[in-house]
From TrEMBL:
InterPro entries: ATP-dep_DNA_helicase_RecG, DEAD/DEAH_box_helicase_dom, Helicase_ATP-bd, Helicase_C-like, NA-bd_OB-fold, P-loop_NTPase, RecG/Mfd, RecG_dom3_C. SMART domains: DEXDc (SM00487), HELICc (SM00490). Belongs to the helicase family. RecG subfamily. PROSITE patterns: HELICASE_ATP_BIND_1, HELICASE_CTER. NCBIfam families: PRK10917.1-3, PRK10917.2-2, recG. This is ATP-dependent DNA helicase RecG. Residues 473-634 form the Helicase C-terminal domain. It catalyses: Couples ATP hydrolysis with the unwinding of duplex DNA by translocating in the 3'-5' direction; ATP + H2O = ADP + phosphate + H(+). GO terms for molecular function: 3'-5' DNA helicase activity; ATP binding; ATP hydrolysis activity; DNA binding. It is an enzyme of class 5 (isomerase). Gene3D superfamilies: Nucleic acid-binding proteins, P-loop containing nucleotide triphosphate hydrolases. Its EC number is 5.6.2.4. It comes from Flavobacterium crassostreae.
């Protein structure tokens, strides 16, 4: 749609003018003809059916009635408040039409005793039916306009409705737009694609989406427009990836040297799983080429991503580069540091930790050693991103739990070197593959889809608060055989104070039920100082305490293999992926582990589904699919920070088959004609250029 007519400012359209034009701009973001065309209806209503007044029911349904206005009056109600009331009659009875806004304008436009058609939501009060702010037109007018069994209902706002820009007005100006422009909607997809996929033309699709002649025609129009929308997004994402591959030179890690090989042969603490080996190979190949690596490593909680990250770092070291690993919390950074130091010691590596609570002297040493190259691996939090932190030659940046960091932070790491380092982002949030591709289309993806051997599946149960005595007994038995327990309370930002109180109340009552000296309890929450958090975490990790009472600060990555029971309080307040993350804290050792979901008795349907899903499966991908269905992609954990696609018509969840199809075709076309220079791709190229000119793809993913 690149022709000039569609760039015409909206107020030039007959029936719009400056006032309505201003409203459309402000309320719906419609500036030009082309924007109006893309105002797709929310739904459709049946305008072929006419009701008699004595058929009306109190159902708040939209009805259409033929009759006439016999009488108009203004009624005062309350102080200075007025409403305009018209009596509307047909052969079977009478009802009221009511206006609260724009009364002067409405009153002037109403015609008494002329056969008219009214349309709107019907309600009843004291036995009298009424329609507030109805659409109304003379029968003669009504008969000449495009009516169909499916009349479009457009997105609107209160201001628009109050200022007289009703759905009927939008319908009218839409008709006007079609009259003025119809012949000019250029095709954007190549002919062969339309034929292969049996898609209707752009022109027909636009006509049928606004004025469908049948439900079949509407379905075809929706399909075509959804495909087109997803197709062009994929085209941009894939192109971006291709350009990156060609243009962005990376450090070619040519050798696999003594660090990697020595570790692999002599110091591996366990046999790698097949999936870990495969993923390491994928990474090695990628980093060995001339292009910069940008890879997403997905693996369920406990699948063993850390060792993969470590061995990837060894490859960087083998090639004479430094490596860093960034984690979202101090606890997690600490834990990575402790775990990786143990491995690094065996190879005599210099590895250090940098977080917000690092002391000035330690910082100074780190900065020095980073710049002179003697520090080989740096682990840390956001603190790594500070400008003062300069590497001599950073070859690899690993980011753990990617969803906690935004796109911006990723690119900040890039800029730490003149040649950007290879980037490996790791996430335990299983994002369904199609969605991952559409959100992170610029990343390559590796998946660890296998757990280390010998893990017993975690047994999950759902218990009501009324079963607490039994749950506590179970916990005592587990502690008696030497296990440790997590008890987690929700922490949801909006009600932080209340959550904190819940946590403290919980802690007190647990302390009473599990008294000293027989039991020792740790507590961990966001308000504690980092040093205190570490100390508590350490006591628990060393087995000095039996129970860890915590908020969701422990959600990410914490690893205490002897902890075998996870109790989640008010589990109904957690989302599915969070529940799954929390559960992943247990089941890390050889013992049978348990997850107990505590909820109140009254649960919403969604909450029930969440509990059932957790009890039914340990498979993160399965859980992610349910999560996606329940909440839509906007709330999916992995996408919270990076946002979701802002789509006009397609729905990433419901239309994931169309998405996959669009992606495949975009890929195929780019493979054959990456610059889109073939004549049959001219229409496509025009749209593509306009899109890239106008929008950075990240605008879709804001
Ligand atoms: P995550 O993928 O959740 O980050 P980790 O890397 O923390 O998982 O690994 C979880 C646990 O599994 C750790 O204790 C780790 O040492 C262990 N582990 C990882 N890979 C293997 C393996 N191939 N065989 C046995 N244990 C493994
Ligand atoms: Mg981890």
């Amino acid at each position: 749609m690149s022709n000039n007519l569609l760039l015409t400012p909206i107020e030039y359209l007959k029936g719009v003018g400056p006032t309505r034009g201003g409203l459309l701009r402000k309320e719906l973001g419609i500036h030009k003809y082309g924007d109006l065309i893309q105002l797709y209806p929310n739904r459709y209503i049946d305008r072929t059916r006419y009701y008699k007044i004595n058929e009306l029911q109190d159902s708040a349904a939209e009805v259409q009635i033929v009759g006439k206005i016999t009488h108009i009056k203004t009624v005062e109600f309350g102080k200075g408040k007025k409403r305009l009331v018209a009596t509307f009659v047909d052969a079977t009875g009478q009802m009221e039409l009511v206006w609260f806004q724009g009364q002067k304008w409405v009153r002037e436009s109403l015609k008494i005793n002329e056969i008219s058609v009214v349309f709107g939501k019907c309600s009843s009060f004291n036995g009298i039916y009424s329609i507030a702010h109805p659409e109304i037109e003379l029968l003669t007018e009504h008969q000449t306009s495009l009516r169909s069994a499916m009349q479009a209902v457009y997105p609107s706002t209160e201001t628009l409705a109050n200022r007289g820009v009703s759905n009927r007005v939008i319908n009218k100006i839409m008709q006007q737009l079609f009259q003025e422009t119809q012949a000019l909607f250029t095709e954007t997809l190549p002919d062969y694609l339309l034929q292969e996929l049996k898609l209707i033309s752009k022109k027909d699709a636009l006509l049928q989406i606004h004025f469908p002649k049948s439900s079949t025609a509407l379905a075809q129009a929706q399909y075509r427009l959804k495909f087109e929308e997803l197709f062009f997004i994929q085209l941009q994402l894939i192109t971006k990836n291709l350009i990156q591959k060609h243009k962005i030179k990376g450090h070619p890690f040519a050798v696999v040297g003594t660090f990697f090989n020595g570790f692999y042969q002599h110091h591996l603490p366990f046999e790698l799983t097949g999936a870990q080996k495969r993923v390491i190979k994928e990474i090695r190949t990628d980093m060995g080429s001339n292009a910069q690596m940008n890879r997403l490593l997905q693996g369920d909680v406990g699948s063993g991503k850390t060792i993969v990250a470590f061995m990837t770092m060894l490859l960087a070291l083998d090639n004479g580069f430094q490596a860093c690993l960034m984690a979202p919390t101090e606890i997690l950074a600490n834990q990575h540091f402790i775990g990786l130091s143990e491995l690094a010691q065996k190879l005599d590596l210099n590895i250090k930790l940098l977080t917000g609570s690092s002391k000035i002297a330690a910082r100074r040493t780190i900065q020095e050693e980073l710049e002179n190259g003697s520090l080989q691996i740096l682990i840390g939090t956001h603190a790594l991103l500070e400008d003062k932190v300069k590497f001599q030659n950073l070859g690899l940046a690993v980011i753990d739990e990617q969803h906690r960091f935004g796109v911006e932070q990723r690119s900040k790491l890039w800029k730490k070197n003149s040649i950007p380092p290879h980037v490996l982002v790791m996430t335990a949030t299983p994002i369904p593959r199609t969605l991952a591709m559409s959100l992170y289309g610029d990343l390559d993806i590796s998946v660890i889809d296998e757990l280390p051997p010998g893990r017993k599946p975690i047994q999950t149960v759902h218990r009501f608060d009324s079963n607490r005595l039994k749950v506590w007994k179970f916990i005592r038995d587990q502690i008696a055989i030497g296990r440790q327990i997590y008890i987690v309370y929700p922490l949801i930002q909006e009600s932080e104070k209340m959550d904190y109180k819940d946590l403290m109340d919980g802690y007190e009552s647990i302390s009473r039920d599990f008294p000293l000296p027989q039991y020792a309890i740790s507590i961990l929450h966001g308000k504690m100082k980092p040093a205190d958090k570490d100390a508590e975490m350490k006591r628990f990790a060393e087995g000095k305490t039996n129970i860890m009472v915590a908020t969701t600060v422990i959600e990410v990555g914490v690893n205490v293999p002897n902890a075998s029971v996870m109790v989640i309080e008010s589990a109904e307040r957690f989302g599915l992926s969070q529940l799954h993350q929390l559960r992943g804290r247990v089941g890390r050792g050889a013992d049978q582990s348990y997850c107990i979901l505590m909820t109140s008795f009254k649960l919403s349907n969604d909450s029930k589904t969440r509990m059932e899903t957790m009890v039914g499966t340990n498979d993160g991908f399965e859980i992610a699919e349910v999560d996606l269905k329940l909440r839509g992609p906007g709330n999916l954990m992995g996408t919270q920070q990076s946002g979701v696609l802002h789509l006009q018509i397609a729905d990433i969840v419901k239309d994931k088959d169309i998405l996959a199809l669009a992606r495949n075709h975009a890929m195929k076309i780019l493979k054959e004609d990456a610059p889109l220079q073939k004549p049959e791709h001219a229409g496509m190229r025009a749209v593509y250029l306009e899109l890239t000119k106008k929008k950075n793809i990240w605008n879709y993913i804001s």
